[in-house]
Amino acid sequence: MNMGYSRTIIITGGAGFIGSHVVRLFVSKHPDYHVINFDKLTYAGNLANLTDIENKPNYTFVKGDICDYELVKKVISENNVDGIIHLAAESHVDRSITDPFIFAKTNVLGTLTLLQAAREFWEPSRWEGKRFYHISTDEVYGALELTNPEGLESPFVTKASSAGHKAYGRTFFTEETRYQPHSPYSAAKASSDHFVRAYHDTYGMPTIVTNCSNNYGPYQFPEKLIPLFINNIRNRKPLPVYGKGENVRDWLYVEDHARAIDLIFHKGKVAQTYNIGGFNEWKNIDIVRLLIKTVDRLLGRPEGADDDLITFVTDRKGHDLRYAIDSRKLQRELGWEPQLQFEEGLEKTVRWYLGNQDWLDNVTSGDYQAYYERMYKCR
Ligand code: NAD
Ligand code: DAU
């Protein structure tokens, strides 16, 4: 049943960090689409991320596991779904190092389950009007060299680039870069990307894959660097910087990613891969210093008051040195450009977490954690 809507799409993982921004954008921007948020609500999924749109008539939430073939098939067929934007995943590298199996299950078998269920329903229509869009990561490409620890002036600049727009090496990940994942997380994501492409090449399914750099912004679970450190600075807890803090990440505001997903879902070419990123490389230690400065200023603490929270700890196993994404194909072919400049975006993000302490306190509370740790162990 399409209930008068022009399209019905499933967004998997819509209760998570990036997924909630994608759901919000699609529900608001496309009132003629029926948007089904399909999410298992693991520790990382939180319906509190979507309270502002939960009563919209074109929004439906289904609690379910992407590994549950019968349920996925039922939701696709009963709703006559014609598009899937797939974000559901286990997403935290550190967790993948301690518990790799759930990463293979969710990210690989879950993706395969979705592909197969969609294929069963879509293939008889010869794929007319159908689209399977898989959201992946730059981590599948492995790590780049860090040839200039002080940073060179980047040859590429976007509106999202930081004021100094530095590059810490001369190479970037392009869509042609060979896959060379290092962590169980990125190995599982790489495997899922291969399955998606295989469904296009073998059965003709209209698929698209995108690989994005590190996202930051509201509603990110505080196990990831930026929200974890904002919360720790607020509570004057140590900031565990892995190794020497010299690893480089390429940061993009989450709403810029969501806008890219909207554009690519509608205008991207079938069987293509697009890299998404804003040419905005930062050394971890520089981000940490900027976070301390920003949080302290916004809380009215004297400058330098929390510098001693920085604590260098044992490095992450297999820690990728540098990520830097070349998104010129997306800019050239589809005209995408990120909108939010990094220093402005980071301040906006810090303000959001400080202004939403209930959200932070809830997801870091003993009750929330204990409940999900129990669930985690059962799987
Ligand atoms: P997240 O961990 O915040 O959210 C993941 C969501 O998936 C949660 O809502 C969770 O409940 C749901 N989920 C997990 N297992 C599920 C299952 N078996 N069935 C149904 N739902 C399930 O993740 P995120 O950071 O928002 O990342 C979303 C996607 O984007 C992932 O595929 C990730 O690999 C990719 N990605 C993330 C980043 C980043 O910086 N966060 C960058 C590039 C790509
Ligand atoms: O590049 C895209 C990827 O970005 C996504 O695919 C992943 O889902 C997402 O989690 C993210 O992976 P990272 O490992 O880069 O993000 P994280 O926030 O965990 O770490 C960012 C950097 O900060 C990384 O170099 C490790 C470091 N770090 C992280 C934590 C949590 C620390 O030094 N201390 C910490 O406590």
| Ligands, ions, cofactors | nicotinamide-adenine-dinucleotide, 2'deoxy-thymidine-5'-diphospho-alpha-D-glucose
Structural class: alpha/beta
- The ordered string of helix (H) and strand (E) elements is EHEEHEHHEEEHEEHEEHEEHEHHHH
Q: In angstroms, what is the radius of gyration?
A: 20 Å
| Overall 3D shape | globular
Residues in helix, %: 25-40%
> How many extended strands?
14
Largest sheet: 7 strands, parallel
Termini gap: 33 Å
| Strand fraction | 15-25%
Rounded average pLDDT: 96
Q: Going across the major beta sheet, what is the strand order?
A: 3-2-1-4-5-8-12
Unreliable sequence segments: none
Number of helices: 12
Structure, briefly:
This protein is α/β, with parallel strands linked by helices and 379 residues long. The chain contains twelve helices and 14 strands. Strands 3-2-1-4-5-8-12 form a seven-stranded parallel sheet, with helices on both faces. The protein has a three-stranded mixed sheet with strand order 9-11-13. Strands 6-7 form a two-stranded antiparallel ribbon.
Folded structure, characterized:
This protein is 40% helix and 17% strand. Helix 1 links the parallel strand 1 and strand 2. It is of the alpha/beta class. The strands form four sheets. It has a seven-stranded parallel sheet with strand order 3-2-1-4-5-8-12, with helices on both faces. The protein has a three-stranded mixed sheet with strand order 9-11-13. Strands 6-7 form a two-stranded antiparallel ribbon. Bound molecules: nicotinamide-adenine-dinucleotide and 2'deoxy-thymidine-5'-diphospho-alpha-D-glucose (DAU).
